[in-house]
Amino acid sequence: MKRIGIVATQGAMLRALEVKTQVLLKEPDFEVQLETLQMEKGPTPRIELEDLKIELFNAAESLFERGYGVVGFADESVPSFFQELATECRARLVNPKSSEASAYASFLIDALDEGPVLKGFKVGMIGGLGPAATVDLYDKIVKATPAKTDQEHIKLVVEQNPQIPDRTAALLSGGVDPTLALYNCAKRLENDGCDALIIPCNTAHAFIPYMERHLKIPFINMQQAALDEIREKFGESARIGLMATTGTVKTGIYSKKAEEMGLPLFVPSDERQQDVMSAIYGPEGAKAGKTDGVCREQLMRAAEELVSKYDCNVLILGCTELPLILHEGDLPCAGKTAFVIDPTSALARKVVRVALQANQSRGVR
């Protein structure tokens, strides 16, 4: 059954009933639901106007959630701020600019054939893994966006949950499984209307296969974004060194993808891997808020081994805390120059490309 909603204040109920009658005369099988607003007089005209806008918005959203994809309005004041409502509401709204009930009823009926409203591409970020890495990824998305005004940036929602159990501990030492906590965040973002999900944590990507089968929206994968850029930049000459948490190394979330792509990938020795872990988790490490000194020395020891022992010309900073210590770009290392790639930056660039392409195809921003 096709369904139309009409929202009206008490003073506009007569017109709402006229429009409903006209819809049913034209299409007797339609269902038309009237939503009546009980508005109180505000202390100032401006507050009264904003009260009206918000209540109309709430009513339209309520109708949409109950299955009414097209919503009309009976109040004569709506055309003056109709575009504000249309921009924010999920339902297809029909401007009540025609004062004649029969004509407006026809507009409502025709709107049912126009399909769902296309909104700007919205990205959902599962944040708090860790808090600094979340800020870092968001900052890089903003900087990667070719925007000249605030309105040209992409829509992004962060579900910040630093209480998600440690991913490395879960993978290596029987710590609390973070899958359900991650999924709960992902589901909240999906329910908020996000089109795709991102995670500012390399190790957490090991849990994506357990979640994505229960979600309707995809993850934009950080490892894939980084490896795609490496292949584009270096082709068959790439020799990749991975510096990441031991959990990321052992789960193979980089190495398996690299192998599928024909890219040789190497990891540090056990001793140098401990240096990487200390640079992340140690008392002088990135998670403790340090970005120079001991943690940089530890990370450089691992980098030098990868370059000197395996002739790596690309180094992946495979933990989202590591770009806080080393920066993307050429790095003098072991008498050579290796290119450091920051998967956080690669992910940010891919997110922006995906979002802008989607917005262009939708004709929105």
Helix content: 40-55%
User: What's the order of the H and E elements?
Assistant: EHEHEHEHEHEHHEHHEHHEHHEEEH
* Annotation, overall tally of beta strands: 12
> Radius of gyration from the CA trace?
27 Å
Structural class: alpha/beta
Which ranges are low-confidence, i.e. pLDDT below 50, for 5 or more consecutive residues? none
Q: Tell me the distance between the termini.
A: 32 Å
The first-level CATH class name of the largest domain: Alpha Beta
Largest sheet: 5 strands, mixed
Notable features of this structure?
16% strand, 12 strands, Rossmann fold, 365 residues, five-stranded mixed beta sheet
Summarize the structure in words.
- Helix 1 (13-26) crosses helix 4 (101-111), helix 5 (131-144) crosses helix 14 (343-362) and helix 12 (270-281) packs antiparallel against helix 13.
- The chain folds into 3 domains: 3-114, 3-Layer(aba) Sandwich (Rossmann fold), CATH 3.40.50.1860; 122-222, Rossmann fold; 230-346, Rossmann fold (3-Layer(aba) Sandwich), CATH 3.40.50.1860.
- It has helices spanning 13-26, 45-65, 82-88, 101-111, 131-144, 167-172, 179-191, 208-212, 222-234, 246-251, 255-260, 270-281, 294-310, 343-362; strands at 3-9, 31-37, 70-73, 92-94, 122-127, 155-160, 196-198, 240-243, 265-266, 314-317, 329-333, 336-341.
- Helices cover 45% and strands 16% of the residues.
- Helix 3 links the parallel strand 3 (70-73) and strand 4 (92-94).
- It is an alpha/beta fold and 365 residues long.
